[in-house]
Amino acid sequence: MIGWEDVYKVVVAVVPLYVALVLGYGSVRWWKIFTREQCDAINKLVCYFTLPLFTFEFTANIDPFKMNFLFIGADTLSKLIIVAVLALWAKCSRKGSYCWSITSFSLCTLTNSLVVGIPMVKPMYGPMGVDLVVQASVVQAIVWLTLLLIVLEFRRTGIEGANSTNLKPKASSISNVVIGDEVVERKDVEANTIVEDTSSRLPFFQLMKRVWLRFIVNPNSYGCVVGISWAFISNRWNLKMPSMVEGSVLIMSRAGTGTAMFSMGIFMALQEKVISCGPSLTVIGLVLKFIAGPAAMAISAIIVGLRGDVLRVAIIQAAVPQSITSFIFAKEYGLHAEVLSTAVIFGMIVSLPILIAYYVILEFIH
User: Fold this and answer.
1) In the Cβ-directed half-sphere of 348, how many Cα atoms lie within 13 Å?
2) Which topology term describes how it sits in the membrane (predicted)?
3) Per-residue pLDDT tens over the stretch 129-164
């Protein structure tokens, strides 16, 4: 049962993240230390150095031979359900959007389990719960964040390829133009904007080749793969990582979460408003995070036959607040970073009472 001491432990785990966030915000908004170009460079540092090493470090230290594959199956099924629903919405609805489907998938499924999930689950369900949350985090890093990276790279490469192969200046007769998913009036577009001919696309295989070449040189694409590979080897033959290698990894990986929050604070400072996505998108993001995600997990867990505390842990870990990595990727690839930053910031604030409420409700389920 959760007591005040356990609540305090969660607060202790979360407060340092907000310290890093405030320092990043103040460095731009109050103290004017960084320029916009330097802020972009900081995000690239986080995206391509600290986060890949952070991912490698925690995936390399699990025991893959002791994973609960029924639990992993439920987690996988829940994400596939969400993918199917979002794809159907994007294809069939007049308001559907593939770009918003990508962001909605992040909001529904990607969690900050290591920072918030473990301190919350440990007093609820003990070592068993912690072990399951770590397993979900590893699968998230290996499978779902990697797939998100591929989709984001596919989107950016397609846009860049189309822009470089078939660009045309705006004609004064154009009344509306398409930029990304948005249709805007001619008067709202700057005079020097170049508009993409949406009738032009790169050939599919050429596009996939460009995506693959970019993907294989991105450290995020293989940090988790190398980590889980070492986990299999080390646990199979009882090997330990050389101290020199371990020290080299830790010196950067320990800065992963802090620098990510610092980068988020910088991003907030560059926006006109703290809640840059607006209140309606903030509410939608919180609903997707704390209701849609756990609901999909509950359905999937029941389908695969989870029962007891394993079922409860599955639902609660799906309600853990937004992954910080999803914001870093969104910022780097220019897709709704303001929505994901708001989801991370406010999600961690409201997650404590929400997770406790889920815990109390689930105790009545046998």
Assistant:
1) 24
2) Multi-pass membrane protein
3) 999 999 999 999 999 999 999 999 999 988 887 777
